[in-house]
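Listing S7. Sequence submitted for prediction.
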Amino acid sequence: MINSIKGHYYQCDGSLPCCKNNDVAEASTDDSLKGGIPARYLDERGGMDLERVRLDQREARRQVVRAMIRSIKELWHRR
């Protein structure tokens, strides 16, 4: 286990800026969900409508498969 500051920066891959723990602003647990859930996925009681999420995920998968099939057909016709 690395306990030095050098070890902390070693874990960063460069894609995101690294910061020291004391540079991070304090946030409450209530702040973490503000704006996190799109309104279309909220149910009447303020919770998540999991059925709506599942339906949207299924439709997104269908769209991906359709796009893949379209790409394969285009590649096939170029031959």
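Caption to Listing S7: primary sequence and predicted structure tokens for the chain studied. Residues 6-10 have pLDDT under 50 and may be disordered. Residues 49-79 form one domain.
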